[in-house]
Amino acid sequence: MLKYLIAGVLICLAGTSKAAEKEVVTINLSINEIFSLNSGLMGLDGYQEIIKDGNQEKSVLKFYKFGSGLRLLIAHDLSAMKTIIADIQIAARKTETDEGKDAVTRMGFEKQALTLEPISTKELDLDHNPIPITVLSALAPILKD
For the chain, what percentages of helix, strand and coil (3-state, to nearest 5) are there? Predict the structure, then answer.
């Protein structure tokens, strides 16, 4: 009986470890591409819709209809980008010195390696979520079919 219990636990653990594995990609991006991707990810919060309120029109924020897994993936990708964006901003503030200017110039031309989780276009559900083309374009480095 004990051997069946142990076998069952091992099978469950093997199944959960595969489920917990995330697909990640390492991409090399310039500073401009990093800021563009970050803006694209932030653009997945929602969109403005104009509604009638009596005789007046007002703009309300409508959230995209994403599953919890995709929302968490977007949050993880945004968190992963925070450090590199903070480093870029710190370097940009140090431009008063020649050394700071050289560092910012080098950063502008060097590609930075980022490890992020790709986003499935299927999960974005583009038929029901009116995500603008400019946001999709900014997400291009991490979009997968």
Answer: 55, 20, 20
CA max distance for the chain: 73
Strand partners, 49: 60
Helix (H, G, I), strand (E, B) or coil at 3: helix
Whether residue 59 contacts residue 48, with contact meaning beta carbons closer than 8 Å, is answered with yes
- Residue in the block written with tokens 């594995």: 21
- Cα dihedral: 116, 121, 125, 130 (round 10): 90
Instruction: Report the predicted TM-score, pTM, of the whole model to 2 decimal places.
Output: 0.74
In terms of phi and psi (left: phi > 0; alpha: psi -120 to 50; beta: otherwise), the region of 110 is beta
Supply the DSSP string of 87-111, one letter for each residue: HHHHHHHTTTSHHHHHHHHHHHHS-
Contact indicator for 36, 141 with CB cutoff of 8 Å:
no
Which residue, among 26, 33, 27, has the nearest Cα to 109 in the 3D structure? Answer: 33
Nearest to 31 by CA among 81, 75, 80: 81
In the chain, the percentage of residues whose pLDDT exceeds 70 is 76
